[in-house]
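Hey, can you fold this one?
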Amino acid sequence: MQTTRLDLFQPSPYTNFMNETVVEMKNGMSIHVEAGGNPNHPCILLIMGLGGQMIHWPDAFCQALIQQGFYVIRFDNRDIGLSSKTKLSPIKPNLLKIMIRFKLGLKNPPVSYSLEDMADDTVEVLKHLNISTCCVIGASMGGMIAQILAAKYPQYVKKIGLLFTSNNQRFLPPPGLKQLQMFFGRAKSAHEEDVIQHNIKIAKNIGSPNYINVADIRRISKIAYQRSYAPAGVLQQLLAILCTGSLQKWDKKITQPTLVLHGECDKLLPAKHGRTVAKAINGAKFELISGMGHDIPTELIPQLSNLFVHHFKS
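Sure. Predicted structure:
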């Protein structure tokens, strides 16, 4: 039985069922963490995607996992939310050149950090909290980190759940141009309302088309903005994805039972990305979710949480 460091936590200001703490890393950075549920129950670690703060894991999704007998941990990746921000390089990277080399399967020069470094961050969080083993759910970029985590640190990962992610294999279908432009575009200004409106436009373009809840998007966007507005972090994380490249070498090392879920309506990462991940990992299962885009709508939380829970408990 794991003995989680409960003395490290204090009540979260965002939810009434989770507690928060800060994990000081060996590299001098800090990672902001929340946990909820019974710490004596099996642990599920949630890893969020590109530019997403831990609060972008819906409370209802976290509660569904907790209510089905799990201790749930979510955290801000480096450069996002309340976690440490890395220093920007004085030399501006040529993003177009890096993206072209990425699509051609060519190795890019090193940048500030890679997805491997983000997987190292993740295992440091587990060590700090005395979590000896867990199940992992990674969304989008978080799913890429989860693949590396499971392959590089198999002793910490019991089972894997992957949500609308990729392994960056060559020749996978690119994101829709409109979705790509919107996702990596900037708000009209750094003012709160302009950022919120931009986030609503993104959600309408990449989210589940029949389940767009503008009021909910506005609420989460407001909290995220007031916690930390750090657009430079999105670029830093994107560079980490591009410069890490294909994850096939990691997928070949994964032996844990893996479930890959992908949205039928995902226009940012088309469903073939998820199918390719499942094919690359020995014994992985794939399930296409009808009506889902590149998000976790409230209406699909029961289905998604039940699929992951069944996988983790089976």
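The mean pLDDT is 91. Let me know if you want another pass with a different chain boundary.
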